[in-house]
TrEMBL record:
InterPro entries for the chain: YceD
Protein's recorded name: DUF177 domain-containing protein
Highest taxon listed in the record's lineage: Bacteria
Species this protein is from: Asaccharospora irregularis DSM 2635
PANTHER family tied to this protein: LARGE RIBOSOMAL RNA SUBUNIT ACCUMULATION PROTEIN YCED HOMOLOG 1, CHLOROPLASTIC (PTHR34374)
C-alpha cells in the first residue's frame, strides 16, 4: 500500500486523499508478526503544510491474538487514528520534531502498511481474553477448563481437607 509523494513534493497538489480497503494477511514490525482477520481499511489524507508533509488517517482492521488464559484464538478489532509528519531520514531533526509524531520515509513514497506496523503495538491491547468468564487452563494438567473438567482440583482439595490429626494417624499406618 505504497503512496507516491511526488506530486506533493513538487507542489503540484496540496493534498492527496487516501482511501484503501485491502486484504492483507500479516503486518510485521521488528520481530512481531500480526495476523489479520479482516481487510485493512484506511481513510485520510497527506497534506503539504509549512512544516512538511503531514499524514492523518483513520485505520480499522481486525487482528488475531490468543486468549491470555486459555490460549484460544481471539479476534481483536482495532480502530485508531495515525497522525504525524513524513520526514526523509536526511532531514530528520529530533529537536524540530520533538513535539510531533514523525514517520521516517525512505524516498518519494510512503508505505502505509509499514506505518500501521509501527503504530500497532501502542494501539493493540497487551493481553486479551476470549471472554470475561474464560476459565483458562488447568495449572495441573493443562486441560482447557472452558471445554472439559478435570479432577486436579478435587484431588488437591481432598488433600487439603484432611484434618492434620488424621494425617498424623495416616502416617502411623504407613508400612516401611
Ligand atoms: Zn480464554
Ligand atoms: Zn487438571
Amino acid at each position: 500500500m505504497k503512496v507516491s509523494l511526488d506530486k506533493l513534493i513538487r507542489r503540484e497538489t496540496d493534498k492527496i486523499d487516501l482511501s484503501f480497503f485491502e486484504k492483507i494477511d500479516t503486518i510485521s514490525y521488528c520481530d512481531k508478526i500480526y495476523e489479520l482477520a479482516s481487510p485493512v481499511n484506511i481513510k485520510g489524507k497527506i497534506a503539504n503544510t509549512n512544516k512538511g508533509l503531514y499524514l492523518k488517517v483513520d485505520v480499522d482492521f481486525t487482528i488475531l491474538d490468543h486468549c491470555a488464559r486459555c490460549l484460544d484464538q481471539v479476534e481483536v478489532p482495532l480502530e485508531y487514528s495515525i497522525e504525524g509528519f513524513l520526514v526523509k531520514e536526511d532531514n530528520y531533526d529530533e529537536d524540530e520534531f520533538e513535539d510531533f509524531d514523525a514517520f521516517i520515509i525512505d524516498d518519494q513514497e510512503v508505505d502505509l502498511i509499514e506505518i500501521i506496523g509501527q503504530t500497532l503495538e501502542f494501539n493493540a491491547p497487551s493481553a486479551v481474553t476470549c471472554s470475561q468468564e474464560c476459565k483458562g487452563l488447568c495449572q495441573g494438567c493443562g486441560a482447557n477448563l472452558n471445554i472439559e473438567g478435570c479432577s486436579c482440583n478435587e484431588h488437591t482439595n481432598d488433600e487439603e481437607n484432611i484434618d492434620p490429626r488424621f494425617a498424623k494417624l495416616k502416617d502411623l499406618f504407613k508400612t516401611d
